[in-house]
Each structure stands twice: as C-alpha cells, then as structure tokens.
Amino acid sequence: MKRETIDIKTPDGVANAYLARPDDEPHPGVLFISDAFGLRPAIEEMVDRVAADGYVVLAPNVFYRAGRSPVEDLVGPVGGERRAPAFQAVLPLIGELTPKRVARDGAAYLDYLGQVAAPGPVALTGYCMGGRLAWRIATTQPGRVAALAAFHTAGLVTDEPDSTHLSAVDLGPIEAYFGFADDDPGATSEQIATLRQALDAAGVRYTAEVYEGARHGYAVPDAPAYDPIASERQFRELRALLARTLR
C-alpha cells in the first residue's frame, strides 16, 4: 500500500489531502469525503481499506480554507466528552461550504484524481456531512461520476429552497447507495421517503437502506456511535457498488 499526504490547488487556495493506492499501477479513482471532524487517523484507516480493494482513493481536507487538518488544530480537542462542543465549533466551517464552493472544490479534487487514477469516471463516497458534499459534487460534474455512496448522512431532505434532494435530477446516469442510521433525527422515515420520491422521479438508479439498530456515526471507528457490525456492512455495500460501477 502506498500512502501520502498531498496538496491540491483549488480556485480558493490549497487543500491538503490523504491519498492511498495499492501500487503505482493505474486503478479506478474514488473520492472519499469525511465526516464533520475531517481528516484524521480513523479516516485514513477507512481510506486504506477501500484502496486495498484496488482503487486510488483521495480524501481531501474540505475545511482547508480555515487551515490544514486535523480539525482539532482549528477548533480544539474533538474526542471524548469534548466531541459535542467540538461539533458546535465545526458548524461554522460546515456553513462556509456553500454549494458554489463545493462545486469548485469538487472539480479540483476530480481533476487531481484524473491525474493519478485510471482514465474514466470515478466514485464518490461520503460519511455524515460528507454524503451531502459528495452528492453536490456529483450533480456539478456530469459524466465524471459513476457512483455515489452516502453513509449515516443526515440533512439530505430539509425545508430549505436549496435542499439537497431537490437536485436529484442533476445526478444523471449514476448508481447511488444510501445507508441510513436507524437512530438519526436528520434522516427520519418521512425524510427518507421524500428522498426516495425525488430519486424515483429523477430516474436515478439507487438503493436506500436503514441499518437497524445503528446510530448516526456508525461507520467511523473513533465515533461514539461506532458499530462494527454496521460498519462492516457499509464496507461490503461500498465494495459491491464500486465493483459494479468502476470495474
């Protein structure tokens, strides 16, 4: 396994990122968008596991405008009892990720992947807020994305005029997978039903499942809600999605 920290030039600055690949041979590309606590060893561990299946995986620091990762260097300790207040400190950074900024950043990330991965469309996978960002990137990069995965992602359906689900028609001919947490106030059964309706109306090929008994954050090893059974399930589903769409 080859691992390195690289810098990506974007229209708004330079984003540091973690890149993992099996070797120097060309492999399909995967853009990995982390949860709200950004790049850290737990995320790198997950990236390595995806890369080991034969992919070039790029995980950018989406908060680069505020500084280089890790996030705790920007907002203070994020572990243990500090996790809840740390999330409140991270919220302004999330708020700065406007749709236009996400589109510009996404283009830069995919441009970089295009230089180091095999030619052809890539897959996007995101966790928590990363699922929303991955969706936004997919809608602004037609023809460059073959698959989208989102795990324990909340807030895809809101009452706002720019709610993510309203852009389902812009996802285009991709295959999508959604693994929702069973205990997630930001992804209720009503919201999931609305998302399904939007995806059906847009003609998107997708699977949306609720992981029974799993809480928001189930996939990430250092999260309080980490659930090894649910996490293994999401890795299996992601592996199958990548095999169907990138191989």
Tally of discrete structural domains: 1
Mean pLDDT over the full residue set: 93
The helix-and-strand class reads alpha/beta
Give the full name of the CATH homologous superfamily: Alpha/Beta hydrolase fold, catalytic domain
What is the N-to-C order of secondary-structure elements (H for helix, E for strand)? EEEHEHHHEHEEHEH
Which CATH class applies here? Alpha Beta
Tell me what the CATH architecture is.
3-Layer(aba) Sandwich
The portion of residues forming beta strands comes to 15-25%
Count the helices. How many?
7
How many strands? 8
Shape: globular
Tell me about the largest β-sheet. 8 strands, mixed
**How widely separated are the two ends?**
20 Å
Question: What value does the Rg take, in angstroms?
Answer: 16 Å
Poorly predicted ranges: none
The CATH topology is given as Rossmann fold
